[in-house]
Amino acid sequence: MPDLLRSLLSICNVLLLSVGLLACSVNPEREEQGGELGAAESTLALSHAADRLLVTPPSAVNWQPFALPGKRHVAFEPVFVLEREALRVKADNSVSILRRRFEPILIKPGRLNFSWKVDALPAGAELADGEASDSPVGIVLGFEGDRGRWSPRMHRLSEVSRLLTGEELPYATLMYVWGNREALGTVVVNPRTDRIRKLVLDSGTQKTGVWRDHERDVRADFRLAFGEEPGPLRVVALMTDTDNTQSRLTAWYGPLTLSSMTD
After folding, report:
1. What are the φ/ψ torsions at residue 101 (nearest 5 degrees)?
2. CATH topology of domain 2-260
3. What tens digit of pLDDT does each residue of 125-145 get?
4. CB–CB of 135/116 below 8 Å?
5. Are residues 130 and 170 in contact, defined by beta-carbon separation less than 8 angstroms?
6. Where are the domains of the chain?
7. What is the pLDDT of residues 168-180, one digit of tens each?
8. Closest-CA residue to 176 (of 200, 142, 208)
9. Residue 34: which of 74, 92, 69 has the closest Cα?
10. What was the pLDDT predicted at 171?
């Protein structure tokens, strides 16, 4: 069991950052609060802004910020940038996640539209390096699937996760990211588990400080990344991650729209 737990921690550390799977509710006293708003006012303002900006098919669960055990959390803040509403993260050696779980699960995700902007990139970040795989912005999608295709090791890890947290690991996680030097369109397989794959949509510093708008076919991107058809969608999340490289930067997320193929 000690070896299994060590494996779980090494793999789940990445999975945690991907979907906030084992995350606990944010402790407002540990958040980096913006402006002069108190904790309750900041939480309410973020909730209202998320409802306006981040549009998905219906779910019984609202968008929620999550903090990871042992990781510094910086809160998402509603802001206006040149009259454009956005959610801002002032990252500082931190991991920030804003997540929505689908209850019921979204059977057939369709198209995804979103925009993001950054003022800098994490120094020395390498998406394929488990010790330096930070990304200034990310959109994370966690999928269900046929766990019969998993290796015995993944089944054991998922069972330990269920016993420890009450939740199984996602079958597969697709992440849209901004890389430091990776070529556009590159699919990066996580070095700790091939059940997490990253698709590079922006790369390098040439477009920093500029809003980048993206429209993606989720199902086509999943096929590209994993070579199989996607299952139902369990979770969608925004994630800014700079803790491995101990970087400081500011990221902004604009409107996001996720559709269902049944719409």
Report:
1. -95, 145
2. Jelly Rolls (2.60.120)
3. 999 998 999 999 999 999 999
4. no
5. no
6. 2-260
7. 788 999 999 999 9
8. 200
9. 74
10. 92
